[in-house]
Amino acid sequence: MHGRRLAILTAGNFFVATSFMSVSGLLNEISAGLHLDIRQAGSLIAAFAVTAGLCAPVLATFGSRIDRRTLLTVSLAISAVANLSGAFCETYPQLLMARIVGAIASAVYTPQVAATVSMLVEEKERGPILTKLMMGWAIGAVLGGPITVYIGGAFGWRASFAAIGLFGVLISTLVWRAVPVGVRVPPLNLQRWIDIARQPALVLLTLTTMLNAAGNHFVFSFIAPTLLQMHQADESHIALLLVVNGLGGIAGGLLTVKLIPRLGTTRVSYWSIGIIALVFALWPIGSAVFVLIYVMQFFWSIGIAGFPGVQQTRFVMLAPTMASGSRNSWRSMSGSASRC
Fold first, then answer.
1. Is 319 helix (H, G, I), strand (E, B) or coil?
2. How confident is the model at residue 314 (pLDDT cuts 50, 70, 90)?
């Protein structure tokens, strides 16, 4: 795949990740600005996750008949408009609606861009390429997350939403120019979903991805208020944690690219889950020491980063015609549905 095209499509994941993670980093500011308690403000994250999770299969089915160029561009454009409108919301219901609209659009891009790339590269290249594509999420944490936190701290959370929206407009334009005309995936229908349900391996892959994301994001979604309560952390500490989170994600993505040819996707997925489980086991004790939170977050992110890409690759290898229906974006969306 052409390097410039991959970079632009990865930037789309960067935008989606930044949009999704923005509320986590700005939870304290949004709560204060709209006079909400933390639990109610946190429901903005849950609404995004639940909406994306419920809409993903439906949108994957109907969207499978749409040209990839149009589908990916429109999804990013709608998400950009949703973020821009969020900057002008005066009440909780208004912001909630903006987040829901943004979630619907985001539910399209991440899984469908993976399916699109799968159609453009040879089978042997899918694992490394899809992992690189998902690194947009990690880079979103390194750059996008901290930047939105700093903007929110300096100019208010509304300015962060506006900046994300404007960036989305730019990315949607670039994606329109980068994706070739006429790229389509095999159409999905009810029978294909029934076929998935009849294959235990595919069901297990999907459920594992969903449950893995649920555990990860249940904790991470409320990391800002947790640090505030436990260690009186301000926006600079939260921004730094997002940087550490992203650096761990990049390290995990690079390691995954290196390890897949040597170990295979199945072993790499076990490796990722093992690291996550270890960090979760240590978190209740280690989080009492402020600096250890950063250390645990780094290794936690290493484990998280490689998992969606290898799961997507395993799914595509088992069912190539269902690539557009595989839900690797549960890493950040539908897997979070159980958080609140």
1. coil
2. confident
Side-chain-side CA neighbours of 288 within 13 Å: the count stands at: 3
Asked if residue 50 lies in contact with residue 217, where contact means CB atoms within 8 angstroms, the answer is: no
Chain segment 232-241, per-residue pLDDT in tens: 887 788 878 8
Q: Which two three-digit tokens encode residue 110?
A: 């991440």
Write down the residue that tokens 């690797």 correspond to: 328
The model's pTM is 0.71
Structural domain boundaries in the chain:
3-338
- Predicted local distance difference test score (pLDDT) of residue 173: 96
Superfamily (CATH H level) for 3-338:
MFS general substrate transporter like domains (1.20.1250.20)
Integer-rounded Cα radius of gyration of the chain = 19
Nearest to 160 by CA among 222, 84, 93: 84
Residue 329 has pLDDT above 50, yes or no: no
* CB contact at 8 A, 101 and 82: yes
Tokens of 11: 């930037």
